[in-house]
Write a structure and sequence with these properties.
single chain; about 280 residues; alpha/beta; Major capsid protein gp5 fold; hypothetical protein PF0899 fold; six-stranded mixed β-sheet; four-stranded mixed β-sheet; 6 helices; 12 strands
């Protein structure tokens, strides 16, 4: 996907390079499945160190004019070293001359955006697997009579003080989830308001996502925005007139990196993410 060539048989008009790049980048975010779960920061120089403040304990029931210190707060750095993702588009001379119903590159822009979205989802799931808190299921979901709530509440509690609000399941875990006898009575979903989620765990407020790259039989429970961060670098597009092919070629490079953990517990594990294994 994202690497095809538009021919005369496809779709008059012309998009300049800025429009093409904007279209690719926009589609690359809008079509992502899990980008809504992570925070974002600009890293214009490709390498960067982002200081993250970890608040200490809260001061409770302070009196009038009573002062307080930072109470254990401290900074750590998230280090970025961005790499580039590349997609290519091409439009033949014939497609420009003969097309009558739209720009010949629009279909490819959407396709390239979908490719970038999938790569971003892959980066996110890979980052989730870097030092999450982990635990094996006490009540495997493969047994339909086992309640899913025992293990999910354990994962939610482990993410505190951050509020866990999503779960990303493997295909096998989701299949087992759908067969759970409790959920057959309680499950509900509102796709128009869940922004990429396919449902919500009743009673727990966890938006449900699936990704085949999650370890089979596992799921991530986490707090959106706190569990990982996307470093966004520059983006460039180059054009080349190919005399051999009789086409204009476009090469788009986008620099980015997903990092996790951002906030860690005393054991160095991701404080805002818990990986449940052995669900199936």
């Amino acid at each position: 996907m994202g690497n095809g060539m538009t021919t005369a048989g496809t779709i008059s008009g012309y998009l300049d390079r800025a429009d093409i790049l904007k279209g690719i980048l926009t589609a690359g975010f809008e079509l992502s499945n899990v980008v809504s779960l992570i925070d974002q920061v600009e890293v214009p120089n490709l390498d960067g160190s982002i200081p993250i403040f970890h608040p200490g304990g809260a001061d409770e029931d302070l009196g009038e004019l009573e002062t307080s210190g930072i109470n254990g707060g401290y900074f750590t750095n998230v280090e970025f070293n961005l790499k580039k993702d590349r997609v290519r588009l091409a439009a033949s001379d014939e497609s420009k001359f003969r097309s009558r119903s739209g720009d010949p590159l629009q279909i490819q822009i959407n396709s390239a955006g979908q490719t970038l979205a999938d790569k971003l989802d892959k980066k996110t799931i890979t980052a989730f697997d870097v030092d999450p808190q982990t635990g094996s299921a006490s009540y495997p979901w493969s047994t339909p009579t086992n309640s899913i709530y025992y293990d999910l509440t354990t994962a939610i509690q482990a993410c505190k003080p951050y509020k866990a609000n999503f779960i990303v399941m493997s295909d096998t875990a989701f299949a087992a989830y759908c067969q759970n006898e409790t959920l057959l009575k309680l499950s509900y979903g509102a796709p128009s308001v869940l922004a990429g989620a396919i449902g919500r765990v009743p009673g727990l407020g966890l938006d449900i996502f699936t990704d085949s790259r999650v370890t089979s039989g596992a799921a991530f429970v986490g707090a959106a925005k706190y569990c990982a961060i996307l470093g966004k670098g520059p983006a460039r597009i180059r054009t080349e007139d190919s005399s051999d092919a009789g086409a204009t070629m476009y090469t788009s490079d986008i620099w980015r990196q997903v990092k996790a953990p951002v906030y860690t517990n005393d054991s160095g594990k991701n404080k805002a993410l818990f990986k449940l294994t052995g669900l199936v």
